[in-house]
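User: Predict structure, ligand NAP.
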Amino acid sequence: MDLNISNKVYIVTGGSKGIGEGITRAIHSEGGKVVIATRSDGPVTENLVSELNSNGSCHAIIGDLQDTDQCKRVIDETVEVYGQIDGIVNNAGMNDGVGLEDGPVKFRASIHLNLFHYYDLVHYALPHLKKSKGSIVNISSKVALTGQGKTSGYAAAKGAQLALTREWSAELLPYSIRVNAILPAEVMTPLYRKWLDHSFDNPDSKEAEIVAKIPLENRMTTKEEIAAMAVFLLSDKSSHTTGQFMIVDGGYVHLDRSLT
Ligand code: NAP
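Assistant: Predicted complex:
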């Protein structure tokens, strides 16, 4: 199937690591151009850009998206380099474990880390998305639906991303801009690895305990499986899909618990 994204231009936040890296690679392999907007500087981003940039189709903009000016810079520089924006994948974020005991200052910082740049990028990109009838993909989390405990900030931000997915899909109907969300559950990424290694005395047994509860094939979702859904949602093969929450999780959230 030709996804028809050849030469289209997509911004992927956090696009050089984990799920974002998977999405960057999937867009590139379908012939699209990718701007990686990330704070991860050094080899992790440089190596990926030099691997994918042989035909000028990958560009990185380094900086912290918590800074609104950086979000504006990402949009301006993307248009300077490639002349158009056909879609945004809002992906950068982390489960920072700010719970009820941690207090208002940390709670607000957690929302800042995980939510505001989703809005800021789409705000600044709007004129360009209107021109291209672009597509927006918000990477949320199962935590928005299930809760997790001890992570109020992340849960609130991920829930707000789902609300904004519906709100923007309504507001942007007149421009044929589609907005959808993907909710991963358990995907092995650098962040997930760090969480396992730093949170448990025996990370291997914790990992085994988690995968045993994933109904489909008792394994984690791969970043390539998340990326396949993302490129479908970016492409015009999903031209009548908007305001949807795609739960790519091997049945983890919804299937009968007695199955595992
Ligand atoms: P990851 O491995 O840490 O990759 C995220 C990338 O985004 C990193 O390069 C990170 O930079 C960057 N980033 C984070 N905050 C940023 C900011 N403010 N400005 C610029 N760059 C920023 O994480 P991941 O596991 O792939 O997660 C990606 C998304 O999926 C997140 O929104 C996460 O909540 C969601 N998710 C993941 C899972 C999972 O199982 N992995 C499950 C549900 C939802 P640094 O390395 O410098 O932090």
